[in-house]
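Below is a filled-in request sheet from our internal design queue. Each sheet records the structural input a requester submitted and the sequence that came back. We keep these sheets so that new team members can see what a complete request looks like end to end.

REQUESTER: design group, bay 2
PRIORITY: normal
MODE: inverse folding
CHAIN LENGTH: 93
BACKBONE (tokenized):
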């Protein structure tokens, strides 16, 4: 087999392999890269139940106790404040 045919075959294999990787990556991203809607994730203020509101549902009451709900918020850990203080101290010194 001449060298030019080997180089052509090598180039084709690399191009087709790259296209296949790109296709697999696109399929993986479309299947796995999704997020919960923050406006639909609710917390019951009465019993603390966290639930996701079903699509096209307008009833925002808690499915367990029927209590009033509010948008879900991540629990406060204080870690951000600690990091802010450290950054502030680094700037000042
Ligand atoms: Zn509840």
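RETURNED SEQUENCE:
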């Amino acid at each position: 087999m001449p060298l030019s045919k080997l180089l052509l075959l090598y180039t084709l294999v690399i191009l087709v392999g790259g296209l296949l990787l790109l296709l697999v990556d696109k399929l993986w991203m479309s299947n796995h890269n999704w997020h919960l809607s923050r406006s639909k994730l609710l917390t019951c203020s009465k019993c603390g139940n966290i639930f996701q509101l079903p699509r096209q549902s307008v009833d925002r009451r808690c499915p367990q106790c029927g209590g009033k709900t509010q948008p879900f918020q991540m629990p406060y850990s204080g870690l951000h404040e600690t990091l802010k203080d450290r950054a502030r101290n680094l700037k000042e010194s």
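SHEET NOTES:
- The chain has two helices and three strands.
- The helical segments are 3-32, 79-92.
FILED BY: M.R.
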